[in-house]
Amino acid sequence: MKILCAADHKVMPWKNGAGSTTEIAVSPAGAGLDTFDWRVSMASVVEDGAFSAFPGIERTLAVLEGEGLVLEVEGRAPQTVLKDGVPASFPGDAPTRARLLGGPVVDLNVMTRRGRYAHRLRWQRIDAPTTLTPAEGALLLLARTSGLAVEGARLKAGDAVLLREPARLETQGTGEFYLVELWEAAGDLDK
């Protein structure tokens, strides 16, 4: 288990230079934007515009703060992504634009290199202890509320924890978090 405190997340410019992103976790450690196997990050989107191109990457995007956005991916119908709603998955090499619905948003991005890793992203709420069990690969939990504890380690909103073994998750009151499942693709991206 590895705790990733919000205060230690790495802030860096977007690949296209039009904004900044906060890297929560990347594998392998220290990998750059063109060499990662998987990456989890947050970004502030303050105006309508194009997304950075990530050839060979599968992406999933969720809205953490703000009303939401309309994701326009070439060759697909526009998809509305709302705060704590259903995330949108799309190929990172497809030309993509975002149109904000009601002002700036902060989004959560999960990216995996096609053929090496695959992922699933979901929002969850709990009000009783539960066990998080990585089926294979790893789980990354991003706390949306304070009061969550993993194996007794208290998390603040914005903190994350990377798990490779089962761990007990507890909460004071209702706890909200995003859960990212990551696994080696081994040729099976339909998981």
TrEMBL record:
InterPro entries according to UniProt: RmlC-like_jellyroll, RmlC_Cupin_sf, Uncharacterised_HutD/Ves
One family name in Pfam for this protein: HutD
The name this protein goes by in its record: Protein Ves
